[in-house]
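User: Teach me something about this protein's shape.
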Amino acid sequence: MRIVLAAAGGSEETASVYPTPLLALFLIVLLVATSVWIGGWFSLIVIARTTTATLSPQSRVAFFRHFGKVYGIASTVALVVALAFGLILLVGMPWTALSTWCAALSVFLIVVLIAGVLQARAQRRMRQQLIASPDQALQARTATGARAAAVLRAGLGVVSIAILVLAVVRMVS
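Assistant: First, the predicted structure itself:
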């Protein structure tokens, strides 16, 4: 049976069509998936800085070749689960401007993520080429790519946190 439940201290704007136990389960899954996604993003920054400071270029390329595959699967699953459960929760509530912003930023996050994955693959290929045949022009392009990667990672983080903040505001307002 589907009933409308207002969040504690909330209004009809925060009402959900899900029974309390199901709503709690959805929120827990969303919280865990979001934590894995945002925690992974933060960890990636730490790992990138650490490997730059401690590994040779060859070792760094080898590390990220393997790490990227494993991390890509884990982070993609977390993001898909977070977006799916966020959407489930949003459609179970009256749609508002904040709902639209959450949805729009989620689409933007996916676009930025795709750009980041493509850029990371290109960067890995350039680093492999640079190891095989040092070249000043390629070294400059690799450095530019590294700066672009940092901007993309920061963008992913900012957009992810913005979605989280807007979603929390939407749930409690």
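Now, about its shape. Helices lie at 20-54, 57-91, 97-132, 136-172. Residues 1-10 have pLDDT under 50 and may be disordered. If you'd like, I can walk through any region in more detail.
User: That's plenty for now, thanks!
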